[in-house]
Amino acid sequence: MAAMAAKPLARRSTAFGVSDVIIGTSPLGGIGTSISDAAAAAIVEKCVATGFRDFDTAPLYGLGKAEERLGEGLRRSGKAAQCRVWTKVGRLIRTTENVADPDDVEEANVPGKGIYLDSPKDARPVQDYSWNGAFLSYDDSVRRLGENIKICGLRCHDPETKLLESLAVCTGGSLEGLSALRQRHGTEVSIGLNDADVALRLLQAVQSGTQALRVDSVMLAGRWHLLDQTGAEVFRYCAEHSIAVHVAGVYASGLLAGGALYEYRKPSMAEKKRLQSWAALCAEHAVSLKAAALAFAFLPACVSKVAVGLAAAPLVAETVALLAEAKAVPLELWRDAVAKGLLPEGLVEGL
């Protein structure tokens, strides 16, 4: 993708806070680390008590477990009616005996192989990017989330092969199904994925089709943070077409938050060196690396929401503190980052 040669992204001119954060729920599915039902509910309850109202989940996360735990936590909070939930379509969760075609099972996410440690052992993720699959997935999510939980948006999740991409946008595909669900239930139509090139192609395919297929928002994960800005072209497209941008993976799968992995693998020497350069620059400006990462996510004006996953209840208060610190990150830090080659020139206005 030939990014950075185009018009700079408009820079955010308004403040951001708790209402601009979506709580990501992959930790509720046991991503990387198993979690108990009680601990999961405590995270959700603490988020709601602190003022967070937006949550992003998916059938993939723990193969249904995250949706179940999110729903329970929201009900326990006593404020479920005030909260908004985005979930996803593209994978139906079926028990082993209820899989119609074994070839449709996504083997990489079968329990014991995938990264979600709390997935039920007999659950299988079945890929389905059809109109009917979108409706079935919605009904399943409503059941798992439970009563009194409002689904405000549905994302077409990870159509990141040529086949799945074509199935998502074709006549009778999942995006048409999401459009029909919007008409029926008022749910926002969104796409959620990691691949910026696929995201851009999907948006362009929808734009060239009928107005009924319009996309309301895009969640792009891992392609807009201090170490990777390859989502810039998607952001430009969204800004030009009034599509809301939701950013996920802002801590580079944990590397920018003190973790050891990048993209769920060990970072290369070049990536470690870049990380060290960012840490040194942040120290010069008396800003924590994690706060800078959060501030960078909010830097473009087209970003309306930033998703943050929380694996423990104490991290809720830390996130509120990070938001306050992120709002105070000086513009000079970004300009110094450009001067040092850590960010490309012309990426965002004024840098």
TrEMBL record:
Any one GO molecular function term: oxidoreductase activity
Top-rank taxon, per record: Eukaryota
Domain NADP-dependent oxidoreductase: 21-309
Gene Ontology cellular component list: cytosol
Any Pfam family matching the protein: Aldo_ket_red
Annotated PANTHER family: GH17980P-RELATED
Protein name: NADP-dependent oxidoreductase domain-containing protein
Origin species: Pelagomonas calceolata
